[in-house]
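Input record (one chain):
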Amino acid sequence: MSLFFTADTHFNHDTSFAVYERGFSCLHEMNTVLINNWNSKVGPRDDVWVVGDFICGNPMTIPTILGQLNGRIHLVRGNHDTDEYMPYYKRFLGQKIFHIYGLGGTHIVTAATGNQVLLKHQPPADHVIARNPICIIHGHVHSKELFTYGRPNLYNVCTDAHSFMPVSIEEIVSDLYNKCPPRYIPLTMKSIWGL
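The corresponding structure, as predicted from the sequence alone:
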């Protein structure tokens, strides 16, 4: 069982988003690429934390999308995961979706170290991060930059930053090492990631 993170998949958002924002030829192509990429990394017993903006557009398409995705999904709501989608997601609680968290995010405990990581759709402002050493995994920004504001404790899992694929916890740790050599990683970061 492996652990993956993603955000801002925007399945079924609309054609203009797929074409003009992401460069696909049509919405169907975007959905197909996202589903194929997801399933190429995620197995049926893996856990995937979706940190907001999962499925957009017509909520009636939620069962079709969920039926094509591998893994056990844990959803942290984003600004596009509005109340109209919740009844459709809740039908899959305990089947494909195992948790639904609010816009405030949630803390998870890393199994290796017992330390907390905050999962939140929108990253906090830079001045807030400067005072808070906890690692925050987020989406929302639709940037290809892995570290928002250049900070190694603010990791962007937006699908746009990861070739439209979920990112594993091992990849996050590797990116952290590439961003900041271990001797410069703050002690709190070392204990969070088990470094």
